Amino acid sequence: MKRLLLFLVLALIAIGPAYGEDLWDPPWFEWAGSNPTNTVQAWEFQQMDPAMPIGYPTFADNKFGEPWIEEHPPISWQWVPGLDGTTEIQTIHIDVSGPFTIWVPNNPNPNEVKLIFWQMTSDKSPTPTGTPPSAVGAGGEPGINIPSPYPQIQHGNTQWYTYNGILEIRPNPEGEWITWDLVESTNIEEIVIKTVCTEIPEPATISLLGLALLGFVRKLRK
After folding, report:
1. Per-residue CA distances from 78 to 90, 95, 186, 218 (Å)
2. Which domain holds residue 112?
3. pLDDT digits (tens, 9 = 90+) for 179-217
4. Could you read off the pLDDT of 5-38 as tens digits, one per residue?
5. What's phi and psi for 92, nearest 5 deg?
6. Are strands 134-137 and 175-182 parallel, antiparallel or unpaired?
């Protein structure tokens, strides 16, 4: 098993993902198929106009409302060497450590669970301790981080990484706030969030991990 996981990590690093690429489609997202409760939203900061508010996503497929960056620590726009170590890209620079919160609306109808897949590409850990973000539903429903099979991906020999994780809220709320405690001087290239409200059998975490590992193997074989 350890050899398989090591092989997966090395193979994924060798792929050499491009800037701003949404690296993963969570297996549970594919498994949900054409589920109308799926949402996708992304903030590609190198594509944004610095004169405009950063709140609006550069891409959103969310029929339940407008996803939005609710609050953030003081930031500035900066051009820095990008994921290849040389070509400069536009990023948002976190001037002061603090919470970076995104609001994501979703299906208001009752479902057993809300699954949230998040991805961030930055040149520092998402939080000072390296812990993933937290989430809370509109009605105060607590979100929990569940084990994620997705490794963090280092881009070449640079300090840029793409971080991934999975959050779960039961039952699904009408929307949720997702909050990172960002580190001062972090540069962020992009954030992607995919969600689905669904019913999944117990034990949820075990089923999810099994699907995720199968998805990894299938993608590598392709």
Report:
1. 6, 11, 11, 38
2. 2-221
3. 999 989 999 999 999 999 887 655 544 455 555 555 544
4. 333 333 333 333 344 578 887 877 776 666 788 9
5. -95, 135
6. antiparallel
Contact by Cβ (8 Å): 126, 190: no
What SS3 class is residue 160? Answer: coil
Tally of CB atoms within 10 A around 66? 13
CA distances from 53 to 119, 145, 221 (A): 21, 29, 42
Within the chain, where are the H helices? 2-15, 27-31, 204-221
* Type of residue at 149: P
Cα–Cα distance, 157 to 184 (Å, whole number): 22
Closest CA to 104 of 202, 193, 222, 204: 193
Query: Two tokens at 130?
Result: 């390296």
């996803």: which residue's tokens?
A: 67
Structural domain count, the chain: 1
In angstroms, what CA-CA distances link 50 with 46, 89, 170? 9, 13, 37
Give the pLDDT band (50/70/90) at residue 4: very low
Please tell me whether the peptide bond between 203 and the residue prior to it is cis, using omega within 30 degrees of 0.
yes
Q: Is the pTM of this model over 0.70?
A: yes
The rounded distance, in Å, linking the Cα atoms of 130 and 143 is: 18
Structure token digits, residue 148? 């994620």
Residues 22 and 120: their CA atoms lie apart, in Å, by 9
Which residue do the tokens 């089923």 mark? 207
